[in-house]
Amino acid sequence: MKFIDIANFNIKAGKGGDGAVSFRHELYVPNGGPNGGDGGDGGDVIFVGDEGKSSLLDLKIQKNYVAQDGLKGDIKNMHGKSASDLIINVPLGTLIINVKTGDIIADVVENNKHYLVAKGGKGGRGNARFATSRNKAPTIFEAGEPGQYFEIRAELKVLADVGFVGLPNAGKSTLLRAISNSKPEIGDYPFTTISPQLGVCRDKKGRTFTVADLPGLIEGASQGKGLGDEFLKHIERCRIICHVIDMSGNYATEDVFKNYQIIRQELINYNYKLENRLEIIVANKIDLEEAQINLLYFNEQIKDKKIIKISGLKKTGLDELLLAIGDALENIPTQALWNMQDENTNDNSPKIYTLESKKDDTVIENLGNGHWKISGEAIKKIYNKFPISTHDNLLVFNENMCRLGIYDQLRKRGAKNGDYVRIYDIELEWMG
Fold this sequence. Notes:
Layout: E1 6-12, E2 45-49, H1 57-61, E3 64-66, E4 86-90, E5 94-98, E6 104-108, E7 114-118, E8 149-156, E9 162-165, H2 172-179, E10 197-202, E11 208-213, H3 228-231, E12 240-246, H4 249-252, H5 256-270, E13 278-284, H6 289-301, E14 307-309, H7 318-329, E15 363-368, E16 371-375, H8 377-385, H9 391-403, H10 406-413, E17 420-423, E18 426-429
Parallel strand pairs: 1-3, 2-4, 9-11, 9-12, 12-13, 13-14, 16-17
Antiparallel strand pairs: 1-8, 2-7, 5-6, 5-8, 10-11, 15-16, 17-18
């Protein structure tokens, strides 16, 4: 089965319940006194890391995930029940990305950890909350806030300490089988590995780490050729890149240094930060005579990087490779590429993204013949929060419009008494 590592779907948190307008019946209490309860909060959409899952297949099948809405408030100060959260289990290593902005909302790396992705709307207040000495029987209430909505792209990137990269048939699968408990398919044909294979390795010092055999890359992989574009993303999780080279040059028919440069350039083209990863060069198939000759040539071209000679087939040099990996991992922090500090900045503090109010985008349109239209995010928020279904809510709505300066703008634009102003689904007579 094809490895499922990308899924696109929509999530929507629940809407908050509306507050209630009601009055109790007591002697000498104006209108019985307000006792409308608050609405319940809408359900959140939460992603949970699940080490038992291995693909995003479920997310590819279901395209929409909607949390429940909070219940409305009721009489006698009874508050509406808050909705249950919607839980979505995903494999460890899953990135949750906002499609519209490209921002990473959550990086799911811990088992059973809850990641809040879409916040449910807050329930509206009932009229009991608005009683004052000046207005002892208010009919003011708030509608519940809408829940957050996101178009999501989930990407599953394997969680491994070390990633084996190299051209097809470089011997990566054979090497992984020799040093770990993994049993990847092995064959003398391109793209034997069609999905990332994971194995757990242990060196002579007893240190354990995970290794991923990533599908063979070819020239142009970063632009989508071959299988590389689909699986290059998995390298972003790896702390060390082991570049496995068939040092025999496919039995002396290829330039081993050119082969190295091809893969190196594809890693740089895919993500400029990949060059910041520690690289260990693994000279494979060293048991062949051609490999011994090519290694001399290769050493002349590269003098500043560690080269470890091995034979995955003969299982020679493996202990040295494992010890080198174990030593390197002790000095490398666990950090995904997107979290790595740029060299041009000294700011080591974590970035915290918060929801900020958008700039005023109010639009006032003169439709002619005494008709006007008002729209904008700030207007919409007030309109949704205080439905104009009671006299008091209309007063509150007007107060907020004055505070935003909307009515001053209408006067400057030439609105006259008796004109009609449309605000979304309602039309009001202007008495300015």
